[in-house]
Automatic annotation (TrEMBL):
<dbReference type="InterPro" id="IPR002347">
    <property type="entry name" value="SDR_fam"/>
</dbReference>
<dbReference type="Pfam" id="PF13561">
    <property type="entry name" value="adh_short_C2"/>
</dbReference>
<keyword id="KW-0560">Oxidoreductase</keyword>
<dbReference type="GO" id="GO:0016491">
    <property type="term" value="F:oxidoreductase activity"/>
</dbReference>
<dbReference type="InterPro" id="IPR036291">
    <property type="entry name" value="NAD(P)-bd_dom_sf"/>
</dbReference>
<protein>
    <submittedName>
        <fullName>3-hydroxy-2-methylbutyryl-CoA dehydrogenase</fullName>
    </submittedName>
</protein>
């Protein structure tokens, strides 16, 4: 798929971190971009800066996501590219010490369900709505109509203590890729996922000032190069997957060769 001004894209979580880097990279390639994000102030400012369309979207709400796609398509036409970076998840161990009672407590079913909605269900929701719109497009070379790229995580394979929800549900995202790609193959819509390791996104960068020793430890935990990933490196991979029409139903781990220990 040749990336140029004839194409439209939707990037969820596009107001910060990996999503923002992807928005910038797509705009540099000339692609029209709609930013889906819950943070209206940042989203509007970035959209004005890079020449994108901002849509305030809550990925936990079907109505909000549908309204976002409707607004994006009205502004820039049907998207051929979807990059889904937004996520909502709760942390916690399956069973842990309860400091208040001195006994034990478990991560609640409700917290796990919220994570399931924000990781796995949201990924299906956004991908399937995008695919439905792409299906009506005229095909490009090779019969391609669109590219869907989901964001998984290295935690899908190396889930650590306290990541029972996040790790298992990102593994669910991985498991969605092949059957969804097969569902959509006759429509010419590709589906892939990226599994980033530790990247220099806003949550990680907070440690740089708050706990420099921990931040340095995170850098040193990466085999090579010994640093956190740059969001631009994620975006570069995202664009190559989107460009290369022979990449389909694949999971790409980008992590500096790190393998997470239990803690």
């Amino acid at each position: 798929m040749k990336l140029d001004s004839s194409l439209s894209a939707v990037v969820t979580g596009g107001a910060s971190g990996l999503g923002l880097a992807t928005v910038r990279a797509l705009r540099e390639a000339g692609v029209k971009v709609a930013i889906f994000d819950i943070n209206e102030d940042s989203g509007q400012a970035i959209a004005a800066e890079v020449g994108a369309t901002f849509c305030k979207v809550d990925i936990m709400s079907e109505d909000s996501v549908l309204a976002g796609f409707e607004a994006a398509r009205a502004a820039q036409g049907q998207e051929r590219i979807l990059v889904h970076c937004a996520v909502v998840s709760k942390g916690g161990k399956t069973v842990s010490k309860d400091k208040e009672t001195g006994g034990f407590k478990r991560m609640s079913t409700q917290d796990y369900a919220i994570s399931a909605e924000g990781v796995l269900v949201a990924s299906y929701r956004i991908a399937s709505i995008a695919a439905l719109g792409m299906a009506a497009l005229d095909p490009l070379e090779d019969g391609e109509r669109g590219s869907i790229l989901l964001t998984s995580s290295a935690a899908a394979q190396d889930g650590q203590v306290g990541q029972v929800a996040y790790g298992s549900l990102k593994a669910g995202v991985n498991g969605m890729v092949l059957p969804m790609a097969r569902d959509l193959m006759e429509l010419g819509i590709r589906v892939n996922a990226i599994m980033p390791g530790i990247f220099a996104t806003p949550p990680m960068l907070r440690f740089k000032d708050m706990n420099p020793a921990m931040y340095e430890s995170l850098n040193n935990s990466v085999p090579f190069p010994k640093r956190l990933g740059k969001p631009e490196e994620f975006a570069g991979l995202a664009l190559e997957i989107t460009r290369n029409s022979y990449i389909n139903a694949q999971l790409f781990r980008i992590d500096g060769a790190i393998r997470f220990p239990p803690r």
